[in-house]
């Protein structure tokens, strides 16, 4: 008997599964299909502008830095300014995200853009989020050529663009968007929920920023189209 | 790891007089408890979410066979492989087979308690594969040849001075005069040392906080980002998970995530919650080429349908040990196996046998703090009581304890005799102890008086006091 059959049959015996097997299978199928929502914290269930403000406040609370810009066209300037302020070279790594490629990078001629997965030597990475979660100040990023996962983890500075209209009140709304985008039951290879820059408290429970992932997380919220 | 639970008492005696441990454990008492309380208070729906989380886990466990099958089907659909391991040995062999199939020399590892449970590191080393722990705490204890003393803060038993010494000993390529006096410089050094390891590794092994049946997804929850680098850079990603980690849907995942980090570290969300589904897609520029999940049973299926089934709701947040006075006093290593604290006191006898782990459920004051903070509302004290009963009925506890209990039961079942005996004993003790107000030595009670004085009784028994109080009340009412 294979390990699979042994484990499953032990479970069935322990659960006294038998006559009700078909009914149980139906109930499980039903739950998987309907995916009912549970308790949703009231904190994020507020009008859009308040929601965006809550998102920014929560992100700052976990040591991210946040700025809001009016239009996508303002992104290059925001990126260049951040790098300058941190004394970083004017160079940023990003994927092939259409929304990021279409912003007028020409407005910052000194800024060098490299496209593709991140390398260990990259100091700054730029990604476009699928959405944000106001409840906790969390960014949600999906893997793929548009936003390779390595960009989120290898560079010391992680810059993330998120559209104000993509900031949801709660996690469940973002999961609904994932289901709509990829199809029910289908996922991108990696879905990253990111809440602040990386940290560790493993030495004497002292919280320190900048463990293995980025030391700094900068969020650029784009208000309009 | 070698099972040292049978010598719990010896371990505890050593731990209680270890000054380094005493110093390190202070951080547990102050930090974790306060942060959890603040996080829970800041979310009005916290208690409701605990109920929701418990209900989700109960529903999943009642249909665990079905949810595992549904989960497996989705993993396969997304191009991943599911392996079923009945025992620790099966799991080790599956890992080895996968590693050998890609001729792996180096394996990076994210934090995984299952890996500890199946003693994976020693096994890989014996087969010339080098395991590298990448979580800072796990990395430190790997350098020391130790095991975790806490399920989410593996090096919580160490002080910064101890870590500094280990880094100087292990990182020989770095200047000996460098400043390592601050945790921040130690963290930076570990980051630098481990970066190259991620790229050198052929296989990355992580645990899983959850498995989602709706999508065939494994979920890790971390703060450092090491688990992510471990799983996106090597060619192969292996997920080690036990069978009870499955939840039905993404919506259910969201419910439990809301109580996990708050209960564990007092964060609203941990920094990285990562959902992984299958290997890299045809157009993906990064991610692993192979994705394997090993589903470990190792005794869990035999807890289903017993009084210990509720233990399988555990989401490994560590809140029970953070709030446990016994854990604070003796530290995690004293428990002698992988899982310490109250959750370990219940789980360990289930997995390795109450004959070996009987001391663990006895090492409790039954103060009830563990159950009060458990996000999954696991009745930990009640289950420890179940283990004590089993231990007693199997005659596993020492003869003195059994005879002592029997003698006590003889009197306790005969109230008049009991009252007579106590009303004789109490005045005698009271008389002898009057001068000091306490006893330094007492026959048959050296276990108590060796460590502290026994206060002398006031002169009357509880029953006598109670009777008099009631009489006064009666008198008061009639007058």
TrEMBL record, chain A:
Where is coiled-coil annotated? Answer: none
Query: Which Pfam families does UniProt cross-reference here?
Result: LUD_dom
User: Taking every annotated instance into account, which residue ranges of this chain make up the domain LUD?
Assistant: 55-222
- The source's superkingdom equals Bacteria
Q: What is this protein called?
A: Lactate utilization protein
Automatic annotation (TrEMBL), chain B:
Query: Is 4Fe-4S a UniProt keyword of this protein?
Result: yes
The superkingdom listed in its UniProt entry is Bacteria
Entry keywords, A to Z: 4Fe-4S, Iron, Iron-sulfur, Metal-binding
4Fe-4S ferredoxin-type domain span = 305-335
What start-end ranges are recorded for coiled-coil regions in this protein? none
Q: Which NCBIfam families match?
A: LutB/LldF family L-lactate oxidation iron-sulfur protein
Tell me what this protein is called. LutB/LldF family L-lactate oxidation iron-sulfur protein
């Amino acid at each position: 008997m294979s390990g699979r059959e042994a484990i499953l049959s032990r479970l069935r015996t322990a659960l006294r599964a038998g006559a009700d097997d078909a009914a149980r299978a139906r109930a499980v199928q039903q739950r998987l299909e309907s995916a009912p929502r549970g308790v949703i914290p009231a904190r994020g269930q507020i009008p859009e502008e308040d929601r965006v403000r809550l998102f920014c406040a929560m992100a700052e609370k976990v040591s991210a830095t946040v700025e809001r810009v009016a239009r996508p066209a303002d992104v290059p300037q925001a990126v260049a300014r951040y790098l300058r302020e941190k004394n970083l070279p004017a160079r940023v790594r990003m994927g092939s995200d259409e929304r990021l490629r279409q912003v007028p990078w020409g407005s910052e001629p000194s800024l060098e853009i490299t496209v593709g997965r991140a390398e260990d030597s990259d100091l700054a990475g730029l990604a476009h989020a699928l959405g944000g979660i106001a409840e906790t100040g969390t960014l949600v990023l999906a893997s793929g050529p548009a936003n390779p996962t390595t960009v989120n983890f290898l560079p010391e500075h992680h810059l993330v663009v998120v559209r104000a209209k993509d900031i949801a009140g709660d996690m469940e709304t973002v999961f609904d968007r994932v289901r709509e985008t990829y199809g029910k039951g289908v996922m991108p290879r990696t879905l990253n929920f990111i809440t602040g820059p990386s940290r560790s408290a493993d030495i004497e429970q002292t919280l320190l920023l900048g463990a293995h992932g980025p030391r700094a997380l900068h969020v650029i919220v784009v208000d309009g189209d | 790891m070698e099972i040292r639970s049978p010598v719990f008492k010896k371990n505890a005696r050593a731990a209680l007089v270890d000054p380094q441990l005493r110093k390190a454990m202070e951080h547990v008492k102050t930090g974790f408890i306060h942060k959890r309380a603040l996080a829970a208070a800041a979310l009005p729906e916290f208690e409701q979410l605990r109920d929701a989380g418990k209900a989700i886990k109960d529903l999943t466990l009642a249909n665990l066979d079905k949810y595992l099958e549904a989960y497996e089907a989705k993993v396969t659909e997304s191009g991943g492989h599911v392996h079923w391991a009945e025992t620790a040995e099966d799991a080790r062999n599956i890992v080895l087979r996968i590693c050998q199939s890609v001729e792996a020399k180096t394996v990076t590892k994210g934090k995984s308690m299952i890996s500890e449970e199946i003693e994976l590191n020693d096994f890989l080393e014996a087969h010339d594969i080098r395991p590298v722990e990448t979580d800072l705490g796990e990395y430190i204890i790997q350098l020391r040849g130790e095991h975790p003393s806490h399920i989410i803060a593996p090096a919580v038993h160490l002080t910064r001075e101890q870590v500094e010494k280990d880094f100087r000993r292990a990182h020989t390529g770095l200047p000996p005069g460098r400043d390592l006096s601050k945790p921040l410089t130690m963290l930076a050094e570990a980051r630098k040392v481990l970066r190259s390891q991620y790229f050198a590794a052929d296989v990355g092994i992580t645990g899983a906080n959850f498995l989602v049946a709706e999508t065939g997804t494994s979920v890790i929850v971390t703060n450092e980002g090491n688990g992510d680098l471990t799983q996106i850079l090597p060619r192969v990603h292996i997920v080690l998970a036990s069978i009870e980690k499955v939840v039905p849907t993404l919506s259910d995942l969201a419910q439990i995530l809301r109580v996990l980090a708050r209960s564990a570290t007092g964060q609203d969300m941990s920094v990285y919650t990562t959902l992984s589904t299958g290997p890299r897609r045809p157009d993906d520029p990064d991610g692993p080429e192979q994705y394997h999940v090993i589903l470990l049973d190792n005794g869990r299926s035999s807890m289903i349908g017993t009084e210990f089934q509720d233990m399988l709701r555990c989401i490994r947040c560590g809140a029970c040990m953070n709030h446990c006075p016994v854990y604070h006093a003796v530290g995690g290593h004293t428990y002698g196996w992988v899982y310490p604290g109250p959750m370990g006191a219940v789980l360990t006898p289930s997995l390795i046998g109450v004959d070996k782990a009987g001391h663990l459920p006895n090492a409790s004051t039954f103060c009830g703090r563990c159950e009060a903070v458990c996000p999954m509302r696991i009745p930990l004290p009640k289950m420890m009581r179940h283990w004590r009963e089993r231990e007693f009925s199997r005659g596993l506890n020492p003869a003195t304890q059994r005879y002592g209990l029997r003698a006590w039961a003889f009197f306790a079942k005969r109230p008049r005799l009991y009252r007579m005996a106590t009303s004789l004993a109490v005045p005698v003790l009271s008389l002898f102890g009057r001068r000091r107000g306490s006893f330094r030595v007492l026959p048959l009670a050296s276990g108590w008086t060796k460590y502290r004085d026994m206060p002398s009784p006031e002169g009357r028994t509880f029953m006598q006091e109670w009777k008099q109080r009631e009489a006064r009340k009666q008198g008061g009412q009639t007058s």
